[in-house]
Every structure is written in structure tokens, then in C-alpha cells.
Amino acid sequence: MVEITNKLVDDLAHLSRLTFNEEEKEAIKSDLKEMISFVEKLNEVDTSNVEPLLHITPHQNILRDDVIEGSITREEALKNVPNTDGEYILVPKVIKK
């Protein structure tokens, strides 16, 4: 079993750009131990006669033809928009130069 130490928690915190106080570290150590023991239980399962699963279904790349269908008018599209110039939807600027 993997040993869960404060150094391991600190390394994980550093990689995830998080900070934890001592109480949180203890809770995380406990949670990690539970998760690892759960995953290690999978080692008890006999998988010797199980074929590797590459895809959930036997189907791959099922594509459909694009079909042009009806659409709504510009007036209908702008009917419930909070801010418009009559032709386009106006939104707040989010990218600053």
C-alpha cells in the first residue's frame, strides 16, 4: 500500500496550486488512504479470462449526414435578448487589449 505522508500531500498541493492548513492536510490524508484502499480492492478480482475492453460498444465513428432544417428568424432569435442593436446580440466586452 502507498504510504500517505505530509510530503506527498504537499507535493500534490504544489502540483494542483492549492494550499492546505494542517487540519485540511489530515483530512486529505485520510481521504487519500480510503481512495487507495478502494482501488487496491480491484487487485482481488480475477481478470485472467477477461478480454481487454477497447470500446464500450462495438460501434465506432457512427456519423450522420448533415441535414439542413428550418431555423428561426432573426426577429425570433432577438425577441428575448436583453441587449441588441436590432441586428446582433450585444454582450459585454471580455477581452481587453
Automatic annotation (TrEMBL):
Give the EC number(s) listed in the UniProt record: 6.3.5.-
| UniProt family annotation | Belongs to the GatC family.
Q: Which organism is it from?
A: Arachidicoccus soli
Source domain of life is: Bacteria
Please give the name of this protein: Aspartyl/glutamyl-tRNA(Asn/Gln) amidotransferase subunit C
- Give an example GO biological process: translation
Alphabetically ordered keywords of this record: ATP-binding, Ligase, Nucleotide-binding, Protein biosynthesis, Transferase
Please state what class of enzyme this protein is: ligase
Q: Which reaction does it catalyse?
A: L-glutamyl-tRNA(Gln) + L-glutamine + ATP + H2O = L-glutaminyl-tRNA(Gln) + L-glutamate + ADP + phosphate + H(+); L-aspartyl-tRNA(Asn) + L-glutamine + ATP + H2O = L-asparaginyl-tRNA(Asn) + L-glutamate + ADP + phosphate + 2 H(+)
Q: Which stretches are transmembrane?
A: none
Subunit (UniProt): Heterotrimer of A, B and C subunits.
Q: Which GO terms describe its molecular function?
A: asparaginyl-tRNA synthase (glutamine-hydrolyzing) activity; ATP binding; glutaminyl-tRNA synthase (glutamine-hydrolyzing) activity; transferase activity
Family annotation (InterPro entries): Asp/Glu-ADT_sf_sub_c, GatC
Gene3D superfamilies attached to this UniProt entry:
Glu-tRNAGln amidotransferase C subunit, N-terminal domain
* Name of encoding gene: gatC
Function text: Allows the formation of correctly charged Asn-tRNA(Asn) or Gln-tRNA(Gln) through the transamidation of misacylated Asp-tRNA(Asn) or Glu-tRNA(Gln) in organisms which lack either or both of asparaginyl-tRNA or glutaminyl-tRNA synthetases. The reaction takes place in the presence of glutamine and ATP through an activated phospho-Asp-tRNA(Asn) or phospho-Glu-tRNA(Gln).
Does the record carry Nucleotide-binding as a key word? yes
